[in-house]
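Per-record layout

source: Phototrophicus methaneseepsis
name: Lipoprotein signal peptidase
length: 174
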Amino acid sequence: MRRWVPFLLIVLAVLLLDQLSKQWVLENIALGETYLVIPQLHPYFQFTYSANTGAAFGIFPEAGALFQFLPLVIVVVMLYFVYRSGATDDIMRIGFGLAVGGALGNVIDRLQHGHVIDFFHVYIPQINLSNVSNFADHAIVLGVMILLVDNLWQERKNKTEAQVSPDEVSSGDA
């Protein structure tokens, strides 16, 4: 039970923040309209209501139907990993909680609206990057980053533990 409580709290927090923010967008911004959150940050950051039929951050817009079911399969796989996790795998459960919460937030949108509601509009002129996303997308990315870092850290820890120093081998043979 200890492994499920923090995981579920993170999933619920991401879902709540994501769905409340999207509801605010639906009530206050028309599709395609831009809202200046902090006017001094325009054009680098604003809210722009966008209907995303693709994957996270708007990639693969033509594969919308696939993204109604694929996240659910991935969520089931993640739940299996959380179930199989050890008592000390808290960082891994945080990563999975963020990713699952984000995936479910976007699935709810697809089922309710036929698309994902995106609104964080970031523009980086130096590389001509303009992207519109949402809390769920960012939770997924942050969760995956945490999982990757945790995995690398665990591999390094296991490798270090598996290595036996020459002094330990010599003193053990004596």
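summary: The first strand starts at residue 34 and ends at 35. The CA atoms of residues 89 and 108 lie 28 Å apart.
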